[in-house]
Amino acid sequence: MLFSSLSVKGMELKNRIVMEPMIVRYADYDGSVTPRMIDYLEKRAEGGAGLILTAGAYIVPEAKYRPNQLGVYSDDLMPGLKELARALHGHKAKAGVQMIHSGRRLSESVYGSEPVAPSPVAHAGAFMGAHGKAMITPRRLSMRDIKDLVEAYGAAAERIKKAGFDMVEIHGAHSYLINQFLSPHTNKRTDAYGGSLEGRMRFALEILEQVRAETGESFPVSFRMNGDDYFGSTGIQLEEAKKQAPHFVEAGADILNVSAGSSILEATNWNIPPMRIPRGVHLRLSAGVKEVVDVPVIGVGRMNDPYLAELALSEGKLDLVGMARALLADPELPKKAEEGRVKDIRKCIACNHCLDLDTSRFAACTCAINPELGRERIFRIKKVKTPKKVMVIGGGPAGMTAAMYAQLRGHNVTLYEREGQLGGQMLLAVMPPHKEEVQEFIDWQIRQLETLGVTKVLGKEVTTDFVVGQSPDVVIVATGAVPATLSIPGADSEHVCSFQDVLEGTATPKGAVVVIGGGRVGAETAEFIAEKGGKVTILEQLPVICPDMGASARYFMCEALKDVGVVMLPGSRAVKIVKEGVVIADSSGEHTLKADAVVLAVGFYPERKILDELIEADFYKLRAIGDCVEPKSILRAVQEGANTALQI
After folding, report:
1. pLDDT value at position 112?
2. DSSP state at residue 319
3. End-to-end Cα separation, the chain, in angstroms
4. Which H helix or E strand runs over 88?
């Protein structure tokens, strides 16, 4: 069913895979289309998606939400939009543009645009944005403002049609402006645009009617709606969504795109569920809406597996499968699935680097496991004229990526790994709860090495003499890092171990356990121990737990820690470790925290032994990448591996 066609008002989709919109920040400053944006979306069209929906495009200049966000507010933007539509059509994909106004979410922006909303309701439970800017109470929209915005949506939709796109989508979910009107959580109006269900829907219905009037009856219109705001009884839940859906269809929606959740800052960001949330998490919502409408329904929610997509279609839970992060990680997912090459799909691991990594909001979107994202043009793999003998030392993510891309370019690559298996630090990352999908990326990398014919030598400790004896043209050192120690009294006590000892099973802390270090590794280790019955407390010097995680992943991580009873003590520094436990310093001074066992999770330091020896021996054909240079994220390791291979 995944590769069956579907017709919507004469728009023939070749399959049921929809690339969902993401604000990737590849447009120009004024919102115009750039070659980078065309390359990015064209790659997904070339990869086989049936319908490409471009990132949420702002309908008026004041609605700009992110740097380099796509715009549809002016006829001046038409040339780029036309070029984009032509490029996507060149691969037999249908193309649409999603229209957006952020409303009160403009308070998250760095532009200083005035946030507006149906009611002056600021972000609940979030006083500061990720960029450190105070949240602003939005201005209540007047009747005249509402009328102007309805007309702006219609004008933008007409622009999209004239540019040659096949359809338009209206974003009415995720706590953007239309959803703010629809949801009782944010709409406190008592006039015609608030109060009852009918009043709260009025803005959305008027927009749908205006868009239909401007584009005509034959132009497909999609409406993205929340099946659940995840605000509990104060917001939209499925039963109310099912009441709204038929009205959207009656007003002009030909497709309903059913999602869920709100803003990261309100800690309900279920629209980008991280790895610990099950795949297909929102299928109950699309299935519920399908019960009450007779138009195609798009379902979303970690749909990164073609078998899951096929199952959902066969069970009638959706008509079209929405994929966003899955197609960032592997734009060829549709083509590979159709050809039966499912094991070759580089499945998204839902780490949310693409959405969370840049807290300044200025950097463009990147993917932790796909170094080609956003750089499709420069990543055209070109075969070298003169192949070189390339030695890669270290089989973690950086080393495997370097070996893969070097082999793709035609070099003769041999990968050496000291341990008996490939994976490096990723093998530890698989151990904590809900991290199993990291193994899929490890397996994918290993499969690519085998398919490409990279020679692998496992269980080999590489020495300088061995390197010199092999006479390689290039040596890439990717030996990774090892757990760091803590320079405080008592750190070498018998009841102290490292997180690596815990995850590998060489140490089993019991009773009262203190984990020193509240970053990602410490938090995941604490959850691992707590699920086995330990009473765990985390110490973190910084003011927040998991400061190295993005906002959405951090929220779900902290909620999970609460669920298993982990006590979190941010703003607390370990002074020394004693027999009774850990002496800590916090805002109240120094005191002793009792513990039967202490686990150190204070980061990593580079494993540089062979690197330093080769440097000392004046071995000049040398490249160093990944954690052996400086401990860093999987994203940096993978990108450095790919970049280095492209330079050889």
Report:
1. 60
2. S
3. 44
4. helix 78-89
Please choose, from the candidates 37, 39, 1, 6, the residue with its C-alpha nearest in 3D space to the C-alpha of residue 22.
37
Which secondary-structure segment (H or E) carries 514? strand 512-516
Q: What is the mean pLDDT of the chain?
A: 93
Q: At what angle do helices 197-215 and 238-251 cross, to 10 degrees?
A: 30
Strands 604-606 and 535-540: unpaired
pLDDT of residue 53: 98
| CA 343 – CA 457 distance, rounded (Å) | 23
In the sheet with 496-498, reading across from the earlier edge strand, the strands are 496-498, 597-600, 512-516, 535-540, 567-570
* Residues in contact with 141: Cβ distance below 8 Å, sequence separation at least 6, in sequence order: 116, 117, 118, 149
Q: Would you say 359 and 131 are in contact if contact means Cβ atoms under 8 Å apart?
A: yes
User: Which tens digits make up the pLDDT trace of 166-220?
Assistant: 999 999 999 999 999 999 999 999 999 999 999 999 999 999 999 999 999 999 9
pLDDT tens for residues 630-641?
Answer: 988 899 999 999
**CA 384 vs CA 379, 404, 411: distances in Å:** 14, 14, 7
Catalytic residue list contains 58: no
* pTM for this prediction: 0.94
Pairing between β-strand 573-578 and β-strand 581-586 as defined by DSSP bridges: antiparallel
Structural domains of the chain, with CATH:
6-356 (3.20.20.70), 389-483+605-647 (3.40.50.720), 496-602 (3.50.50.60)
Tokens standing for residue 614: 């080769």
DSSP E strand stretches across 261-358: 297-299, 320-323
pLDDT of residue 363: 78
pLDDT of res. 265: 59
Residue 289 has pLDDT above 80, yes or no: yes
Distance between CA atoms of residues 27 and 38, nearest Å: 9
pLDDT of amino acid 111: 57
Phi, psi (5° rounding) for residue 450?
Answer: -70, -45
Catalytic residue (one of 40, 65, 73, 176): 176
* Residues 492 and 451 sit within 8 Å (Cβ to Cβ): no
Relative to beta strand 589-594, strand 581-586 is: antiparallel
Q: Which residue has the tokens 């070029």?
A: 83
**Rounded to the nearest 5 degrees, what angle is found at the Cα of 393, between the Cα atoms of 390 and 398?**
95
